[in-house]
Amino acid sequence: MPVEPLSRKEIEDRLAELPGWSLDGDRLTRSYRLGSHFAATAMVVHIAQVQEELDHHSDLTLGYDTVSVSVHTHSAGGAVTEKDFRLARRVQDLAPGHGAH
């Protein structure tokens, strides 16, 4: 079943429910600052587990105490889809101090 790109309005509406996430070109992005390099590394591992579970993968950048996430759907021509928001919500839920409100 093909995944359909979301409209700009649909993206904006969904972003309103994900504090800190934004649209950067054709990707959803978010950076997290954690308490240490170990905590940032652990978050990358947790995100990798979620990505495997969802069979949807983002670009992850690990800094000293930061993790940056950037995602779009390759199979939809690099557009933002519901799959990207599903992953973003799961990442948001597991981030220390950044969970669902």
Topology:
Blueprint: H1 8-15, E1 22-24, E2 27-33, H2 37-54, E3 59-62, E4 66-71, H3 82-94
Antiparallel strand pairs: 1-2, 2-4, 3-4
Helix pairs in contact: 2-3
Describe the structure.
With 101 residues, the chain is an alpha+beta fold. It is built from 3 helices and 4 strands. It has helices at 8-15, 37-54, 82-94; strands at 22-24, 27-33, 59-62, 66-71. A hairpin with a 2-residue loop joins β1 (22-24) and β2 (27-33). α2 (37-54) runs antiparallel to α3. It is globular and about 35 Å long.
- Shape from CA axes? globular
Strand content: 15-25%
Q: How much helix, percentage-wise, in residues? A: 25-40%
Unreliable segments (pLDDT under 50, ≥5 consecutive)? none
Largest sheet at a glance?
Answer: 4 strands, antiparallel
**Helix segment tally:** 3
> Using DSSP, what is the number of strands?
4
Overall residue-averaged pLDDT value: 94
Whole-angstrom Rg:
13 Å
Q: Termini distance? A: 32 Å
N-to-C order of helices and strands: HEEHEEH
Oligomer: single chain
Question: Helices and strands: which structural class?
Answer: alpha+beta
Strand arrangement in the largest pleated sheet:
1-2-4-3
Quick description:
This protein is of the alpha+beta class and 101 residues long.
